[in-house]
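[scheduler] slot 2 assigned
[scheduler] job type: sequence-to-structure, two independent chains
[scheduler] chain ordering preserved from manifest
[runner] begin chain α
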Amino acid sequence: TLCSPQSSVKKLRNGQMVIGHVPWSSPLEKSLGQVKSTRRIKHVLIYRDPRDGFASALRWMFYPEIRPAYSEATDKEIQWREGFTNDDQRLSFILTQPRFWTFPGYERWLLSPNCLAVKFEDLYPEIVELRHNVLGVVLRRIFDYLEIDASSVNAQELYDRVLGKSPTATTEVDKLGQYKRVFKDEHYAVLDTPEFRKILGTFGYEW
């Protein structure tokens, strides 16, 4: 049974961790701000360049087999992929789908007192550097927000448990600025609007 994010939040208890896509809402903000002995929620928003979000959606929808947790594409998924001539057409299709234009729903989290907002572009390089036993500034800020003693964190162990372990992880190495490798002039043209440029600016990205 599906329920609203704020209802789900009320079911959380101290010591639990969940992940998901959770747009801002006033009721949810209120729920996060209600501290109880059994529930004191720490919300961390990790966001990325919206253009990379579209590039990620291209792989997610049409190439599910690149995810380590996925074995191979089904006949239905292959048929869906081959319904387009090439990735340019597939990406153009994605850019027209409202379900991938969710960025405005997260803007209010950037200023929320009940949320720590972190850029993926700042966090990911630090995750990679964990293998050299280096705990970066952004990771320390997250630990501080979560009230975790950074000195108690084993960087190598964290690296082994985190990198490439999410349900949406892929085997690609260069994860930043992926859109630059797949966008063509026609894709930039679709996005070149005052509204989208405003979204980029709000999240701290340049056109």
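[runner] end chain α
[runner] begin chain β
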Amino acid sequence: SEILSLFPEYDNHLITILLDNLDCESYDFCCLLRRPDDYLSSFFSQELFFERLKEDINQRYFNYYKKSVHFDYKKLISSWIDTNRFKNINIGNYGEIMNELKDTTKWFLRKLGMQYLESLILLKKIRRQNKSIHKSFINIILKLNQELENDEAESLIKKIKDINTYDKLPANQEIELFTKECRLDMYETFKDINLYLGQIINEDKFFL
């Protein structure tokens, strides 16, 4: 659950309270992690859909993401596993799992020793995807938020949100949101985090 991953951002006691109330003999820890630049660009697009952000993704990285669990995966993971309550620790690379299995549910069930039921395929017919802004429109929406009054900006932004076909737009992954300065800082800052994650899976680093 994305909500559970935010517990360390607010209060680590939430983790122990949850585990105490589950009252299980043993626990398995399973967490999927997405490459931070891919994750942040996707998360920023989702934030922009629901909030009137005025700072671009680079400002938001330096002002917020960098010290949060949205980027500091060591803070996220260690807050859970340092409780010493978990029998097994499993962390997976979201990108690799989607390339291999095309389905994160299969990974979770495999790690928990559970069988993947074909009946779960029915759930796929109900496609649930977080709403977000296509990257092509991000700078336009930021400009509207910065320069127009709320009502006027929201009216124009709604028209953008209502666009439901992106056939003539570049794919999201082809659009760069980060500046060179921001990418260099992410690279340097994430080195120790990457090494920490690598130790958990007995590798030199987690993201190659």
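[runner] end chain β
[qc] chain β: The radius of gyration is 19 Å.
[scheduler] slot 2 released
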